[in-house]
Amino acid sequence: MSSRLPPWLRELGETVQVDPAVLEAMDLPRERFVDSSFGSSALTARALPIGGGQTISKPSTVARMTDAIMKCRPATVLEIGTGSGYQTAVLSRLVEKVYTVERIRNIHLDAIRRLYKLEIYNFKALCGDGCLGWKTYAPFDAVMVTAAAPAVPPALLEQLAPGGLLVIPVGTERQELMVYSKDPGGQITSRSLGGVNFVPLIPGEAVGS
Ligand code: SAH
Fold this sequence. Notes:
- The chain contains 6 helices and 9 strands.
- It is α/β, with parallel strands linked by helices.
- The site of S-adenosyl-L-homocysteine has 25 residues, from strand 2, helix 4 and strand 4.
């Protein structure tokens, strides 16, 4: 494990089995992604509120989901649920371009502002319904959904490139982190990475706040 990592990430590396490059990419000022009133707790292992009843995923989940999609060495990633932009920032350090979709306008705008402040520019952000993916830029080498859906939105599987991986929490009361892979012939297979707890993916038009 790299000794350059701050203690919270070194500890995380001892609890989750992920590529060290993922932990290095997570070495961002997490406090800059949450409301300033949560400043001191931003560097803990908990999920944190980001406004509008939404949360920034806990670091172990960010690490596992990122590690899962990096297995296909993606150059482009579609992220559904921009939220604070933390996951977008992590991905931006590992891939060429991140496409991220958020349905709540204020959250979407705040995330863009935060990412620019951190001098992160290799992303495109859309305010809209992520259940529809982002057709203009499809197909994507990998897709990551950071809100739970009752089932995988078909558009997201369609917009996944052959050889690609899609990671998504699936379920309502009980959620499982699922990884779908599309083989070069377009066949889909899936496996579970275990139980998780995400806010719901809400279909429909974008809303203000
Ligand atoms: N990845 C984020 C955490 C996401 S929380 C981070 O790193 O901070 C889940 C986000 O998904 C919320 O911001 C929520 O508004 C958004 N969301 C829910 N349903 C959506 C939909 N249909 N399309 C796009 N975003 C959606």
